[in-house]
Amino acid sequence: MSTRVRIIAFLLLFCVGLHAQVTAIKAGKLIDTEAGTVLTNQTILIRNGKIDAVGAGINIPAGAKMIDLSGMTVLPGLIDCHTHITDSYADSDPLSELRKTAAIDAFASIPNAKAVLLAGFTTVRDVGTYRALVDVALRDAINRGDVIGPRMYVAGAYITITGGAGAVTGFDPSLTLPWDLHYGEANSPWEIRQRIRALANQGVDLIKVLATGAVLTHNSNVKSTEFTPEELSAAVDEAQHFGLRVAAHAHSAEGIKNAVRAGAASIEHGSLADDEARDLMKRHGTYLVPTLEVVECIQDAHEPPDFIQHAKMIASEQRDNFRKAVAAGVKVAFGTDISVCPFGDNGREFGLMVQYGMTPMHAIQAATVNAADLIGVSSKVGSIKPGKFADIVAVQSDPLQDIRVLEKVSFVMKEGQVYKQE
Question: Is the pTM higher than 0.90?
Answer without folding.
Answer: yes
